[in-house]
Specification:
two-stranded antiparallel sheet, 204 residues, 2 domains, 2 strands, 2% strand, disordered N terminus, mainly alpha
Length: 204
């Protein structure tokens, strides 16, 4: 027999985990429409169908809320296999695998991680554990780029930063409905491959 949420005042009482997820769902959608941080809490409370006081109970500051959004997206990427993808021995395989995972993430949820990481509101306020994951994967790919493409450390970081925009923009277009999922996947794959080929040193 299926359990029914407890009722209070004619409304279902949701568990704290479900209620927190409801707030984060609404915050992600609002972030996509608002385009930056901090989020207007009146709008968030209305979208999540909760009081502002309850939002503060779960997320005492907007930095806490933004880091929760970021943690959610990084958890999804790690669950999809981002660590293993970045650790592939061949640069082309690692770059393509990571780009495909990031594209799928952005296509489904929008560029949530990008917005939070780049917004000036979060300068110096990114959760250290999340920053450590980001930096570990970036360093791993940068080392592979230095070896495989014979780039200097700064050039490798710059190249990876530029290539990250490919799955990000392709995914954003799919999420916005301006590009089909199949076409987005194809463009992402082909553009990453052509970028890597263009950077590969001449073997002659």
């Amino acid at each position: 027999m299926r359990s029914v949420p407890a009722q209070r005042g004619g409304r279902a009482r949701l568990s704290p985990e479900v209620r927190r997820g409801q707030i984060l769902d609404a915050a992600e959608a609002l972030l996509m429409s608002h385009g930056g941080l901090p989020l207007p809490l009146d709008d968030l409370a209305r979208a999540a169908q909760v009081s502002k006081a309850l939002i503060y109970a779960y997320f005492p500051t907007q930095h806490d809320l933004a880091n929760a959004l970021l943690a959610r997206r990084f958890a999804a990427l790690l669950s999809a296999g981002l660590e293993d993808a970045s650790a592939r021995p061949e640069l082309f395989d690692a770059a393509q695998a990571c780009a495909e995972l990031y594209f799928e993430e952005v296509a489904q949820t929008g560029p949530v991680a990008h917005i939070v990481l780049r917004d000036p509101f979060m300068a110096g306020r990114i959760d250290p554990d999340i920053a450590a994951i980001r930096d570990r994967i970036a360093r791993r790919l940068a080392r592979a780029a230095r070896r495989g493409l014979r780039l200097s450390p700064k050039e490798a970081v710059a190249a990876l930063s530029l290539m990250t925009t490919i799955p990000e923009e392709a995914g954003r277009l799919v999420h916005a409905g301006d590009l089909s999922l199949g076409r987005g996947r194809e463009l992402n794959r082909r553009l990453i491959a052509s970028s890597l080929r263009a950077l590969t040193p001449d073997q002659a």
